[in-house]
């Protein structure tokens, strides 16, 4: 059983993830950072429902980007619309970690849903 850690910034919450039994919020690509985050009750805004039709789930992968699935042209087109874009930016709904290394994910403050319904 392979496990890896994901740390979410700025909250500094760290979770150990079982690669074979990932938490799931049922949104975005199966096993994606958004899917895992929502399964862990970490709020990341996702206006389109995780279908790569907006850039609201933009996150910055501070560590471990090489362990995530490669971005597609459609994802990169959506990322071009995201504020604060960096070389390590990804749509959380599309970035699926392989589980072969730990990750540090920054959820920009403009992208955190601070109000729960």
Radius of gyration: 13 Å
- The overall strand count is 5
CATH-derived topology: Ubiquitin-like (UB roll)
SS strand fraction = 15-25%
The end-to-end distance, rounded to whole angstroms, is: 36 Å
| Total helical elements | 2
The low-pLDDT segments are none
Mean pLDDT: 92
Give me some keywords for this one.
117 residues; 5-stranded mixed β-sheet; alpha+beta; Ubiquitin-like (UB roll); 5 strands
In a nutshell, what does this entry contain?
With 117 residues, the protein is α+β, with helices and mostly antiparallel strands. It contains two helices and five strands.
Structural write-up:
The structure is a single chain. Helix content is 12%, strand content 22%. The protein has one domain (3-111): Beta-grasp domain (Ubiquitin-like (UB roll)). It is globular and about 35 Å long. A hairpin with a 3-residue loop joins strand 1 (3-9) and strand 2. With 117 residues, the chain is an alpha+beta fold.
Please specify the SSE layout and strand pairing.
Elements lengths: L2 E7 L3 E6 L14 H7 L18 E6 L9 H7 L9 E3 L11 E4 L11
Parallel strand pairs: 1-5
Antiparallel strand pairs: 1-2, 3-4, 3-5
């Amino acid at each position: 059983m392979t496990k890896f850690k994901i740390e979410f910034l700025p909250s500094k919450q760290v979770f150990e993830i079982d690669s074979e039994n990932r938490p799931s919020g049922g949104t975005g690509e199966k096993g994606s950072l958004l899917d895992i985050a929502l399964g862990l009750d970490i709020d990341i805004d996702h206006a389109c429902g995780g279908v790569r039709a907006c850039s609201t789930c933009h996150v910055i992968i501070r560590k471990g980007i090489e362990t995530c699935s490669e971005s597609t042209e459609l994802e990169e087109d959506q990322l071009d619309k995201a504020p604060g874009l960096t070389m390590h930016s990804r749509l959380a709904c599309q970035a699926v970690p392989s589980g072969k290394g730990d990750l540090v994910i920054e959820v920009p403050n403009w992208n955190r849903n601070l109000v729960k319904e």
